[in-house]
Each structure stands twice: as structure tokens, then as C-alpha cells.
Amino acid sequence: MATPKDLPDVGGFIRDLRRNAKISLRQLAEQAGVSNPYLSQIERGLRKPSAEVLQQLASALRVSTPAMYLRAGLLDDKEGHGVLAAIAVDADLTMAQKQSLSQIYETFRRENTRLAEAQAEADAAQAGAAQADQAADQPASQAADLANVAATGPTTVGGTPTEAVLESVAVTEAGTAPAPGSTSIPQKKKAAEAAEEETS
């Protein structure tokens, strides 16, 4: 991979870009917001531009800021900048071709980053929706259980309503309950015997 030492000086790079774009030194200085003498010194290698000035020049010359930073030795070969460096030092390419390739490469990288972010957001939204559905299903089943208890009363482990179990136990132990207002035959017989003893 190319290193900043292998690259032409940033002043010569800026001068070549300016000439390729067919704009004068004065026009570029105005567009980049720097003075004409300062830009002239940069192109001749007498002054080293700051990162901010390089960004302004890159914008005015319509090249990517990373490519300009690479030329100035402000970036290493991380995050695909080695590709930009390789384009910049390729002797078989014209300046216009280098500029076009750098712009296309940067466009592809930005698009891929945007797509990756959109996919991550979609995955997060899908996971959130699945959790919401699961949470919604749980209260619905709990509500159904509560409605069942309200209708039938509490149940035993086997699922039989508790009141029904208690009633069956009471009937088994005591026999069937007499109808209201009626007296059973054994009770009438006992009452009659008690009355005879009192009279005798």
C-alpha cells in the first residue's frame, strides 16, 4: 500500500487538480476562502495547510476530503483510505480519472454505510415488535384465566371448581339436605314419641 511518503506533495496535488478543473489560482482561493498569496505558497510547497484549509480546498475542487488528507499525510491506511492512496499514486491514471475514481469509491462507501445502518434499524425494530407481541399475548392469557375463575370459582389441582368439590363432600357426609319447609319422617316420629311420654 502507498504511504504518505510515496505520495506527491499536497501542494502539487492541489495545483494539478486546479489546472485540471481549469480554474485560476485566484478563483480557487476565493472559493476556498483563503488568500491568494497563501494558496500560492501551499501550491509551491512553502506552507503546510491545516486540516480545515484542506477541507475547504477539497470542497472547492470537488474531491473527497479523505483523499486530500491522505495527500497531506493526515490519514493512515485504515478504513479504506489505502484504496484512495493507491488511486492517487497510480501513474497510469490521469488526474481526472483519479478524481472520478475517488469520488465513486467514496460514494459506494457512504451508500454501504447507510444501508448497514438501515438494516441495523430494521433488525432492531423487528426484535422490538416480536417482544411487544409476546408481551401482548401474555396478558391476554392471564385475562382468560381470571375470567374462568370468576365464572367457575377457584379450582383444585385437577381443574374441578372448588365449590363443587366442597358441596359433594358435604352431601356425602350428611346425606342429601331436606327441602326447605319439609320435615323428614324420622324427625316426625321422634317428635310424636316425645309427646306421648309427656302425656303419660
Tell me what you see in this structure.
With 200 residues, the protein is an all-alpha fold. It has nine helices and no strands. Helix 4 crosses helix 5 (65-72), helix 5 packs across helix 6 (81-89) and helix 6 runs antiparallel to helix 7.
Number of helices: 9
Major sheet details: none
Taking all residues together, what is the mean pLDDT? Answer: 74
- Tally of strands: 0
What structural class should be given to the helix and strand makeup?
mainly alpha
C-alpha end-to-end distance = 133 Å
The coarse silhouette is: rod-shaped
The value of Rg in angstroms is: 47 Å
Strand content: under 5%
User: In terms of per-residue confidence, which ranges show pLDDT below 50 for 5 or more consecutive residues?
Assistant: 1-7
**Helix share, percent:** over 70%
Order of helices and strands: HHHHHHHHH
Summarize the structure.
This protein is mostly helical and 200 residues long. The chain is built from nine helices and no strands. Helix content is 70%, strand content 0%.
